[in-house]
Amino acid sequence: MEKSKLTNINTYLMIALVIVVAIGLYFTLSVPKIEQPKPVPPREVTLTVLGTDCEGCFNITAAVDFIKQQKNLNVTATTELNIADSAEKVSAYGITKLPAMVITGNVTNLTIPNFDAKENALVFDKAPAPYYNVAEKRVVGRVTVIQLEDKTCTDCFNLSQITAQLSQAGIKLSSQKTIDAKSEEGKGLIAKYKIEKIPSLIFNSDALEYDVIKEVWDQVGSKESDGSLVLRFVNPPYINVSTGKVEGLVQLTALVDKSCADCYNISVLQTLLQEGFSMIFGKEETLDVSSAKGKMLVKKYSIELIPTVILSKEVSAYPNFAEAWVQVGSMETDGFAVFKKVEILKEYFGQQGTALVYKNLTSGQVVNGSESPAEPEAEIAPPEAEQ
Fold this sequence. Notes:
387 residues, Glutaredoxin, 3 domains, five-stranded mixed β-sheet, disordered N terminus
């Protein structure tokens, strides 16, 4: 009897196990499997590089390398053609600048930045200067520059700073020449282009191929009838050709109170003027307010806060100076500029982590400009008698 019961139990267990396995198989087989997307094979394309013999032109190698590095492209062949052999494809795709690149093959619905779809291809023909101009059959963007200067003016603005910056900006200066303004050649250029300030720069017309020059030239220079570009906006100091005098060499007079040991150093203002306006100083003088000349200047220009500076009328040579200066000081009737809003330096000193300290001549008090003015104490009124 016991054996029969054990047999029945084993039978039930086997049946239950079979049912469980069956159910598991059912769900395993009935649930749809999520298929992984098949990898898209890279498109097979060919590259044709045009105008590879353009000497000194834009280096198109970087663009070629960019295409070859794209994982969705398989470059099966690369062909390089010189300018002469590029003529057929230049005509077929309406290309105006060389070097250029043409991608053919499986390019349907393919988009690549700076490439245009033309016919059955993608075409890159936006080479920056220098490039070969197909219509003119010459390389444009090779800039020549003449630096016209007076070697006797040691204080004049050094235009080599500008040419160095242009080179750093990617402008191809193929030729640079310095001509003395007092030489016959220099005098001829001054007369030909009616140049009023020395030093100056004269570029060939190819300079306008560069946006960094093209976008600002109307504000800083002129384009002459022969295509030359003449710099008219010259940083001071410079020589006024009509008078022969140097303009823009500013005399700085610092007005201080030697008894105010904690007052800010006037060199701060000088630094700000040099950085903000590229101002060049000639004679520099420091006066104490207790001196006869110091007292005279305080009275003449109604100065209340010191230390301060007084700038000579040569500041008029600096463009936009007067417009900016009225925010911080005064332009006097004699052309001199006086710094008066000393408290405006509070933010500058705060950024340096120091206190702005100056003196009020009217009150005779030394002011710590970094401190907030004290609030007046509230008056305590006596209680009103109850009615």
